[in-house]
């Protein structure tokens, strides 16, 4: 394991992912964790992340010197670099030599462990106010910039390395290479962490946990629950029953996809519950986004509980109750709920798959260690069809939070049609993997005047919200080709009754969220 010490501001997750891309397993720990506890995890290497503060700010997170004296290779980045510098006796100035954004870096030492084989001048991403002016004793300065004399240093003897910039971000041209140099050359770690190993490990772990007991899993149609279920199925086969709640807020073909594709690929036992009436009744007259979310979440849990007790009753004939519940919890959820450091700007989603604690099941969470892209790889490794593995994220509350206004049957039908057209055209244009997701939103309480044929129309607008993102925490609007947008617009206005206008949402996140509600 490589530990990534989190000094806040979301850099740590990205670093952990980059380490895993180098096929080395990594875990994030909060900077408040005592060094003894970090070392007890027997890490092969430790990375100190960037962070938002100045090392001189009152209450700025510090690190115990013992970390650098344990013989474990350490790589400090940005804030971690400065902490390393001052903790080991170097100088960090608070003299206004700030650098933000893309900066040219001059690599000044041949034979550097980190920079071996990279160009003498490279572009790196900087974001700092303080600057290191003198490296600690024993360190060689390996790079500088116009305004910062010490932009990277290393001490091969003690296996301590640091860079002032952010090697983990895309704008740093040789960032991944430098990180891999640290892992492979500096720390001597072999790149052996593969999807195949993850599957084998998880299957064994599930078998150990579940034994011969029965398990249920709520399927949402999304990739996480599908992959989690497939892993459990591989581990314990027939002991698993999946429950799929059709709340009527699904997209076109969604329920069928789960029923056909997923069952065909896994052979899993599936219980489908048609609860459309119940959800529509509960949502009648409601327009407030949070209220809608809460109603959907609550109804979902009731339906799921009922389905679960039916599964239990059915199992009862064989004398066994269901003891385990599968959840598709991902690593970012784990970090966000237990990490302890400030990630305040993340909106927490009440996942409709989430269940109350009094359900009395033990949880099986085989994806707890994985990021979304890794989950997809596991799905492929398990042989799930690409329609499932590469599905774009779809929120638990479904179309219920994509109808701005009251949710009802006719509006859902209308939105389902428009959404199906948009998805069809994006798929036909080969854009599915370029965009993160493309919510299609119905402004149900807005009308505008149009003209179609010879007549006046007074219809609703449909909003296209294509976004690109790495993890949905931030996002940019996708620059879709105009001809694709034109086809979607023409088809939606021609084929969907009551829609006479298609508009494009060109807001990034922040300030907009991805979903409209
Ligand atoms: P926002 O709208 O906050 O969404 O930018 C970020 C990502 O989360 C998805 N999303 C949800 N997923 N339950 C879910 O399972 C929810 O309640 C929920 N709300 C939003 C959204 O589609 C996007 O991918």
From TrEMBL:
Its EC number is 6.3.5.2. One of its GO terms (molecular function) is GMP synthase activity. GO terms for cellular component: cytosol. It catalyses: XMP + L-glutamine + ATP + H2O = GMP + L-glutamate + AMP + diphosphate + 2 H(+). InterPro entries: Class_I_gatase-like, GATASE, GMP_synth_C, GMP_synth_GATase, GMP_synthase, GMPS_ATP_PPase_dom, NAD/GMP_synthase, Rossmann-like_a/b/a_fold. CDD domains: GATase1_GMP_Synthase, GMP_synthase_C. Residues 193-391 form the GMPS ATP-PPase domain. ATP binds at residues 220-226. Pathway: Purine metabolism; GMP biosynthesis; GMP from XMP (L-Gln route): step 1/1. It holds the Pfam family GMP_synt_C. Keywords: ATP-binding, Glutamine amidotransferase, GMP biosynthesis, Ligase, Nucleotide-binding, Purine biosynthesis. The active site is at residues 78, 166, 168. It is an enzyme of class 6 (ligase). It comes from the Bacteria. PANTHER family: GMP SYNTHASE [GLUTAMINE-HYDROLYZING], GMP SYNTHASE-RELATED. HAMAP family: GMP_synthase. Catalyzes the synthesis of GMP from XMP. Homodimer. This is GMP synthase [glutamine-hydrolyzing]. It comes from Streptantibioticus silvisoli.
């Amino acid at each position: 394991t490589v530990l990534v010490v989190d000094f806040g501001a979301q850099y740590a997750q990205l670093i952990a992912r980059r380490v895993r891309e180098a096929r080395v397993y990594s875990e994030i720990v909060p900077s408040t964790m005592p060094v003894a506890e970090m070392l007890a995890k027997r890490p092969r290497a430790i990375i100190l992340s960037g962070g938002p503060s100045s090392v001189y700010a009152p209450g700025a997170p510090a690190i115990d010197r013992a970390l650098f004296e344990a013989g474990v290779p350490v790589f400090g980045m940005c804030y971690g670099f400065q902490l390393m510098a001052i903790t080991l006796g170097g100088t960090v100035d608070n003299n206004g030599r700030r650098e933000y954004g893309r900066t040219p870096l001059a690599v000044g030492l041949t034979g550097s462990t980190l920079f071996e084989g990279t160009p003498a001048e490279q572009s790196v991403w900087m974001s700092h106010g303080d600057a290191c002016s003198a490296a600690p004793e024993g360190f060689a300065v390996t790079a500088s910039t116009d305004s910062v004399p010490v932009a990277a240093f290393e001490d091969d003897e003690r296996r301590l390395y640091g860079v002032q910039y952010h090697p983990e971000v895309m704008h740093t041209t040789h960032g991944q290479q430098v990180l891999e140099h640290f892992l492979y050359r500096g720390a001597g770690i072999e790149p052996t962490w593969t999807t195949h190993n993850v599957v084998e490990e998880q299957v064994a772990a599930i078998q150990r946990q579940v034994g011969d007991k029965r398990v249920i899993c709520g399927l949402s149609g999304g990739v996480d629950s599908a992959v989690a279920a497939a892993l459990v199925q591989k581990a314990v086969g027939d002991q698993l029953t999946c429950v799929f709640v059709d709340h009527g807020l699904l997209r076109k073909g969604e329920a069928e996809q789960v029923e056909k594709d997923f069952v065909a690929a896994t052979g899993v036992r599936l219980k489908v519950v048609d609860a459309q009436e119940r959800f529509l009744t509960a949502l009648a007259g409601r327009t407030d986004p949070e209220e809608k979310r809460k109603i959907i979440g609550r109804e979902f849990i009731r339906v799921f509980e009922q389905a679960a007790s039916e599964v239990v009753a059915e199992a009862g004939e064989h004398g066994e109750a269901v003891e385990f519940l599968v959840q598709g919890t991902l690593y970012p959820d784990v970090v966000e709920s237990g990490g302890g450091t400030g990630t305040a700007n993340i909106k927490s989603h009440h996942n409709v798959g989430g269940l109350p604690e009094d359900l009395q099941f033990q949880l099986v969470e085989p994806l707890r260690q994985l990021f979304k892209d890794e989950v997809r790889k596991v799905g492929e490794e398990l042989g799930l069809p690409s329609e499932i593995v590469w599905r774009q994220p779809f929120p638990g509350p479904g179309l219920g939070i994509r109808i701005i206004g009251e949710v009802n049957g006719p509006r859902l039908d209308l939105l389902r049609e428009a959404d199906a057209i948009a998805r069809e055209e994006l798929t036909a244009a080969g854009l599915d993997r370029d965009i993160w997701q493309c919510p299609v939103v119905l402004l149900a309480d807005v009308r505008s005047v149009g003209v179609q044929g010879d007549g006046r129309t007074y219809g609703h607008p449909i909003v296209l919200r294509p976004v690109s993102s790495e993890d949905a925490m931030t996002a940019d609007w996708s620059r879709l080709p105009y001809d694709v947008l034109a086809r979607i617009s023409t088809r939606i206005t021609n084929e969907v009754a009551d829609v006479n206008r298609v508009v494009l949402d060109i807001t990034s996140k922040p300030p907009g969220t991805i979903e409209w509600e």
